[in-house]
Amino acid sequence: MSEGVEVSRCRDRMEARSQALVLVAVGIPCQLHEDFEGVSLLVHEDDVLRARFELDSYREENRRAPLVSTAQRLGLLTQPTAEDAASGERVLPSPPLMGVIGYALVLLAGFGAQNRRPLGLDWTQLGAVDAGQILDGAVWRAATGLTLHADLGHLLGNLVFGAVCGMLVGRQFGTGLGWLALVLAGTLGNLLNVLFQDASHVAVGASTAVFGGLGFLAGAAQTARELRWRQGLRRWSPVAAGIMLVAFLGVGGERTDVGGHVAGFVAGVGLGLAAAYLPERLRTSRRGQLACALGAVGIPAAAWLAALA
Q1: pTM for the whole thing?
Q2: Beta strands in 131-244 (DSSP E)
């Protein structure tokens, strides 16, 4: 956008990016502007009121979080839906912090294995996204590479933004389904990316899954009921907002895997569009969310077993 109206001023870029993710999740295009006083979040003048409402709701929810019980903060308590009550099935919620903790543990375990080399193995060489080897049949590398990172800064960045993105997706679709969407988008994105890379291309990192989550939010928002009446380009504003954020966050730095970020986003958009056709029961069912959570953990676990075999 050539001009924009400031809807929020943040202390640093990390806080501004977190708020930008909130706006992208609801289909509001935005951009960041940094100056000596901090970082401004800018939107088009037509979106000012809605953007401020979404950001105020986001801040209010964060302020109210300390007032709920520990069990509620961990997502261990929830109100059952009418459908669940009628079926007699006690529904476990989608615990957002539990998903984030699981995500962090997987990434930390992968980073620890890279540095300590248990079993005397070079885990980076064993599991990196190696285009040549994937094209030769080692497709499991598309998933194992998500758990490895080049350095501590790379790891911390993906921990922060992956956690925010995972919670945003989980808020709409449930924690189990949300994290499964990120894992699938990251894995499919890596597979898609190697089709356009040289055989010598090697990459690591969960950022493909993070941008896959952004794509999932954009695709899912595009199919939301409140957007279906829109005509022309306005209907595609959520996808456009996601593309803008990918362009802003995902194409900088000499070691940035731009192709992986774009491919992850594209895969995520496809999964988000498909999510509109999932049965509502899957989002509210304890068993459905649990099955998705097991899938989110099982995909990289099975991939590592295949790599070790």
Answers
A1: 0.67
A2: 202-203
